[in-house]
């Protein structure tokens, strides 16, 4: 059962490109309609999956405004805004048009490997400057440092507008500690598609998903059933998705999910360097699994 604004399935939208590497807005519009029809609960615009670091500031603003307008109030919008320079992140908040935006998803500073105190102070400044609620994003595999459970709980208890964490450490014990100690109104969201069901079983609120771009209906069936305590249905959907979801990440994200979406005719299989399309072998395995499981 949904009990939080960001419960259920948030989809981390890809950004479609044309052959000339410009943004393919008609395909982006088709993708938004595809995931809304599939039952997702909110959109995450320009997270990692959206190749946000390869877009200019002007392009990011244009993509955000397009998605807000296309969604037309049908579901909440979360905007990815983070970085490894606290001053730049907070200054950037003043340049964003937050009309129609319900929260930001802000990744922990990457590359420079701050201490836990540095991470806390970074998000403290983000929380103080943000005009909308903040979802902190812990993804050690990309950032090079972990936000430990004590730091997440300290942030959640100190700042009322830090409303959730996207927990992508893969450490289920750490997630359980956060869930057990979190204040009322704070959500723990899975950042790993294939850990969504066990995260919900521990008391998590749902997921921010990559796979839901390509397979929204099945992914939503899985997640919503788990939230309702119907684990038989959730497991059935999970095992239909498991192998294909693994292939989505075989050659990096969003290479796999763009290949799946291209097979469905929704976006072109084009990424901006330094990312490149998934290998032919991965695309063939993915196509075979999509056909086998009817997803």
Question: What is the compact description of this entry?
Answer:
This protein has 295 residues and is of the alpha/beta class.
Features:
single chain, 295 residues, alpha/beta, TIM Barrel, 12 helices, 8 strands, 13% strand
Mean pLDDT: 97
Shape: globular
Strand fraction band? Answer: 5-15%
**What is the helix content?**
40-55%
Strand and helix order: EHEHEHEHEHHEHEHEHHHH
Within the CATH hierarchy, at the fold level, what is the topology? Answer: TIM Barrel
Gyration radius, in Å: 18 Å
Polypeptide structure, described:
This protein is α/β, with parallel strands linked by helices and 295 residues long. The chain has a single domain (8-230), classed as Aldolase class I (TIM Barrel, Alpha-Beta Barrel), CATH 3.20.20. It contains 12 helices and 8 strands. It has helices spanning 25-37, 57-71, 86-93, 116-129, 140-143, 149-158, 172-181, 196-202, 216-227, 231-248, 255-263, 280-293; strands spanning 8-12, 42-45, 77-80, 103-107, 134-138, 162-167, 187-190, 206-209. Strands 1-2-3-4-5-6-7-8 form an 8-stranded parallel beta barrel, surrounded by 7 helices. The longest helix has 18 residues, at 231-248. It is globular and about 50 Å long. The model has no long low-confidence stretch (mean pLDDT 97).
